[in-house]
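Two proteins, back to back. First:
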Amino acid sequence: MVKRIRSATACLMVLALWWIAAAQAATVLIIESYHHGHPWDTSYIQGIREGMTGDILFYTFEMDTKRILESEFEKKAEDAWAYYQAINPALVFLGDDNALKYLGPKFARVKTPAVFLGINNNPRAYHVLKNGNITGVLERPLIKRSIVEMNKILDMAQVLVLFDAGTTSRVVFDEVFRGKEQIRVSGIRIHMKLTNSWGTWQQIVGSAHQSGYDAVMIGLYHTLTDKDGTHVPAADVLHWTCAATQVPPFAFWDFTVGKDKAIGGLTLFGKSQGLEAAQMGMAILKGTPPEKIKVKTGKTGRLLFSRSQLEKHGIRLPRKMADAAKFVE
């Protein structure tokens, strides 16, 4: 009986210590535009967690906007806001454009500091910077630079840039291509196509060689649906695309590169965005007002390649590029 009392007392003491520690920890909420398991989210959340030192209690909310209908985005934003109000965090991270678009204006009307990351659009378009409690990190896909770099290993006259038609893709089309389907960079004709139709995507990929393209640059492919309106898993899209294409497939994001995936490219990493956002978050928790922290563009990309895909397509990297690159296998 005495042992049981001692055991119960010990458990209560441990529980009490846990509650004290939790009470002292800074509560941080990460609102994801996408979902758990999405490689970009996984990567930037890892960066945030690594960069936020000390006693931090993390919560996350998934808006899941890569897999639900756009008509449902507002409801998801309302759910996210209710979750925020229930938690009452000391700091909020808003991951990617949809989180900032649908929730940024709400946070701009309260005092809770917020840090955004992965933003492709101009944040002023979301009306979030007037209150002084929001700052963050911009994401700028290296479309032009990556194509110019890949031209060093594959003589390209015409390139297809293929994206889904999700929010980020439309922003890239407007910001990088200025709403034009074709642009020319360093003498290379670049044609961007957007679609949310799996059937159309397959047709575009299947006819890329016949259409005169020397390579396909795979952008985002996460909002495709089949003829029945069913979401097609992103992994299935990527693997099919890289297996079916008759022209070499390159990439703009690290999660698109690997065995049975794209060859590689000058890519962006979610983790680096998370680490930079975490630096801002730590400064805020230590007392720096968000308005004193300038919005910044994330670090430049990194050359990343798949050895197996390079071999499959008979591509050999120049020595200088190979020395600067990272390989996934």
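And the second protein:
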Amino acid sequence: MRVFHLSHTDLDGYGAQLVTKNIFENIEFLNSNYGAEILIRIDHILNSLKKDEKNFILITDLNLNINEARYLDERVKELKNSGYDIKLQLLDHHASGVDSAKIFEWYYLDVTRSAAKITYDFFSNSYEIGSIKKLIDAINAVDIWLQDDHLFEFGKVLMRLLDEAKELNRYMFPKESTLYKHELLTLASKFLEKSKGHILLDDNIYLLKKEYFTIEKRDTLDNMVANYIVNLLSRKKDNLTIFYQEKKGILTFGIQNSSLIGNSFLKQNLDFYFFMNLNGNGSFSLRANNKIDVSKIAYNIAKGGGHPNASGGKIENFKDCFFYHQAKESIEELLKNS
């Protein structure tokens, strides 16, 4: 069975995914904020289903409005009628989904528990989940704000841990970003049994991140993250390559510390002339290593500018992108016409 688990982009959403990670092997994790992104992620799932396999679509910690729920329901019914084997289940706790829950049988709503807790309880009767119950209880305590719960303070630290786990951008590295957050939660759970575990966890957040990003040797966190991301980019570079007047470059989308990462990548990949990072609002930065004048690229595609080795600008009327390939197609079109 192939499982597609779509969840929210907060502690509760990733906590719900940690439950299914402990159950299913063949699973794809997706995350979404509210708004247009939800249906885009749902369409991605629907287009990824296989007719010759059992497919399980699970949505957690996201409430669908009537139109979104009806769209999903109709699409799944169409696919089932054409021979697809699909199970659909939504588990949520947001009261704003009450109208959808009344209409669609696959829409389970319980406002008294967090989505992570609902997900754990939903599967615990049928599957061996592992020793994460106390972690899920901590997530539940903070997500529905049970201030008198003995795990509330631990949950607060977990919330900050996930909120600040931005080192791997989820649009550029969707799989790696999700697994990073899952691993942080797993590492954090080790502090649950310690005296004043919430304080110890708070003291060790920085060290947990450094532990995750250690490749060969310990360094500053910025350098370790940069090295980790440069290694990722080097492995994926064939699919990230763009061209400006036959000069090869690499495009990233929404990464932090793009100057540090860009310079490191160019030094390690000498066949690349420039490094470009695009942000969701259409702003971009360009870096070079004395092999091309990137200020000319910035000017030609967006009337931007700067220095020969460091420039930038902003693309007007840039359309929202929720997948890397969408951003890449937009930039390739601009570069081709410049």
